[in-house]
Structures are given as C-alpha cells and as structure tokens.
C-alpha cells in the first residue's frame, strides 16, 4: 500500500518533474487570473452602457462562454485554430480559453459588485466634479470589489484548479507532469504528490475565503 | 437685485410618463438663502438636482455663476466644482477616512498636491468642527458628524453656491442642531444656498425666501414670515397647516 501510493523512491525521482509542473501551474495561474479579471472588468464596465447595441451582444457573449465547457473550448482552440493557420501552442490556447471562460464569470461577479454600490455614491462623487471614469476608479470599484471579494476569491480558486485542464493540450503543468511521471514509473505516487501540492497551494486560500465569508455573514 | 448667481428658466423634466417639473423658474441672488418646501413628489429635489445637472432637464435653461449647465460645450465637471451638494443620506465614501472623503476631489479634480489637499481638507473639517475626526471612517461617525463631513467635502472645493437636499431628514432629532449650526455659519460667511428641507424653525430664522412647490410647479414664494404666517394660495395653506401640526 505504502509502496503503491507513497513510494519514497519514486517521490524522489519524480520531484524535479513535479516541481517543474508546479512552476508552470503557477505561471499559468499568474497569467490567466489577471487576464480573466481584466476581461471581467471590461465586460462589467460595458454592462453599464445602456445601448442595446452593446447590451445584447454582451449578454450573448457572457451566456455563451459561461455555458461552453472550458475543456471543450480549450480543445477546440488547440485542435481547431491550426486549420486557419493559427498555431498558438498549449500555453496560448489555455490563456485564451481561460480569458474567455473565466472572464465571463469574473465579469458577472464584478457587475454584481458594481450594482451593489448605492447610486448616491456616484452622485456624490460626480457632484464634486469627478468624471465618470474617476468616479468608477476611486469611488465605485473599490467598494464593488470589497463587496464581492469572497466571490472573486472563490472564482480564483476555481481558475487555479482548472489550470489542470492544460494537461489535455500537452501544457506541462502540474497534473500533466504528474501523469508523465506516473506513466514512466508505473506507479500512482506522483499523482498523490501532485494532489498534495495542489492542496498545499490552495488550502490557505480556502481558509482565507471561509474567514471572509464568515465575516461577511456576521456584518452582512 | 444684482444679476442672479443661479438662474433656472422654464425647466421641464419627465421621469417616463411622469411630468415632474412643469416649467419652473428659479432665480437666486448671490448670498441669498432660499428654502424650497413642498409635499413629497412635488419636484423640489428634482429641481435642486437640475441645478448641478445630476438631472438633465428636458427643456429650459440653467445658468449657474455665468455657466450654462445645459450647453454642449460646458465642461460639467469643472462647473460642478463651483456647486457644492449635500445629500439626505450623506453619501460619504465608506472606504475612505473623513479626510480622504474631503480630499478626493481636491486631488483628482482641483489638481492639488497631496500636501495641499490635506491642508485644505483639514481646514474644511475644522470649519465643520471635526478636525479631530479626520482619521475616522464614516462608519465610526454619528449621523450628524457624517453630514458635517459631507458638508466639508463640498465646501473644501470653495464652491460659489451650495445645494442641500433634505440635509437633516435622515438624522436623529438630537443631531439635527449640529448640522444646522454649520449651515448657519456658512450663511453668515455669505454662502449662496438653496435648501430643500422642512426645518421650519431654521427657515424662519435664516432663510431670505421660501419657495413652495407642488405638483411640479412653484405655487408661491416670499419671505418666510409671509409664507408661514399669511400664505396666499390654498395649497400653500394646506401644506403649512399640515407640517405645523407635526
């Protein structure tokens, strides 16, 4: 049992491979989270525009990418884009797929956050001469983000976990590397170690999130 | 009367099918304190909000301190620096300290450096008697203090006129006095003020003119004594009678 799942020799051998995978997972997360937030912010700001020419396409966009399974989207980009001469590689495809998918989610969260700020805030800011953009940047967004911080973090947690999808397009992130090590050694230990690494990476975030959620409940 | 500093002419405003302002004219002279009273839904707050273009009238004209607020070429953000506004629900920024609330527009709009803004902000807080609360957040202030910080936020920009939208309606009765005291001081310093409020005692003591609105129109206006003691119009009489019973 120990030899199968917690084989020390194999752990030692697989460690450098897994570490490289962890590095890529972190790099990937550090790319897709800001990209997703940026995309989400753009969507949330566009949602403020009342024009039907913005509204309907925006709604269709958000609905589409929330309904489209990110794995399918990723494989489609990876396998489909080369047919129109676009070879983006694993990293590029993952980045774009996540930008589209997770941006839609971040967008909905940020939109809810912006809507949660009372209109009096923006009226007060505008009455002192702040422009609409300044009002958004200095008055509305800081409060909006604070109001939906648990949701933003929860989504970020999902995004980091979802980077494991990169393994299906040969992106050498943690899960992919673990599976390589597993098939080289004919032993599941690397997968177990990868799982532990994911846990060590995400658990502090999960704890922080519960604390925020509890605080939100108390002050709610 | 010198040229008015606020000159609103023939203002019409609709909210959907509702005709909220039906051709309102209002002139306010420099250093004048005008009280606007009327039943809820009479359009008095909407009129006030037209005076800094928080609401855009469908037609008519609004000129404040020589600036045509409705002209396409007008930089409304610059114009609004000259028009301070105080709201019923304070609308302080909850994520900033009292000083942060007062200095935001000084830094971002008036182009002051952080040091200049802080000095001006502290001076403004001093004028409302809250310099020692500079580091408090709105959540740590009483309603009366919050409203005085909101007044400081507006006067820090050295506006030419101040608009007050029911500034004491959200306050516990014992906190009203501190806000009225600050308003009285502004008045003594010669600030031009338009106040939507039912603080009759303050109106009698401080207002130059009382304007009674009903159903989107100005029904009657005049000196406080005339409006409160000897209203000419039946609607004015009914309204004054009602609020004096309370």
Protein topology:
The complex is a heterodimer of chains A (220) and B (246).
Chain A lengths: L1 H4 L2 H39 L5 H16 L2 H11 L8 H27 L3 H9 L4 H16 L1 H14 L11 H12 L3 H31 L1
Helix pairs in contact in A: 2-5, 2-9, 2-10, 3-5, 4-5, 5-7, 5-8, 6-7, 8-10, 9-10
Chain B lengths: L5 E10 L2 E11 L4 E5 L6 H7 L8 E6 L2 E2 L7 H5 L2 E4 L11 H11 L5 H14 L15 H13 L5 E5 L7 H16 L3 E5 L3 H7 L2 E6 L2 E6 L1 H6 L4 H12 L1
Parallel strand pairs in B: 3-8, 3-9, 6-7, 7-8
Antiparallel strand pairs in B: 1-2, 1-4, 4-5, 9-10
Largest sheet of chain A: none
Number of strands of chain B: 10
User: What is the string of SSEs of chain A from the N terminus onward?
Assistant: HHHHHHHHHH
Oligomeric state of this protein? heterodimer
End-to-end separation of chain B in angstroms reads 36 Å
The major beta sheet of chain B can be summarized as: 6 strands, mixed
CATH C-level class of chain A is Mainly Alpha
Mean pLDDT level of chain B: 94
Total number of helical segments of chain B? 9
* Relative helix content of chain A: over 70%
What is the CATH superfamily of chain A? MetI-like
What is the CATH topology of chain A?
Answer: MetI-like fold
Residues in helices of chain B, as a percent range:
25-40%
Structural classification of chain B: alpha/beta
Backbone shape of chain B:
globular
Structure description:
The complex is a heterodimer of chains A (220) and B (246). Chain A is mainly α. Chain A has one domain: MetI-like (MetI-like fold). Helix content of chain A is 81%, strand content 0%. Chain A has helices spanning 2-5, 8-46, 52-67, 70-80, 89-115, 119-127, 132-147, 149-162, 174-185, 189-219. Chain B is an alpha/beta fold and 246 residues long. In chain B, the strands form two sheets. Chain B has a six-stranded mixed beta sheet with strand order 6-7-8-3-9-10, sandwiched between helices. In chain B, strands 2-1-4-5 form a four-stranded antiparallel beta sheet, with helices on one face. The two termini of chain B are 36 Å apart. The mean pLDDT of chain B is 94. Chain A binds chain B through residues 118, 120-121, 123-131, 134, 138-139, 142-143, 146, and chain B through 52, 54, 77-81, 83-85, 87, 89, 91-95, 104-105, 108-110, 150, 153-154, 157.
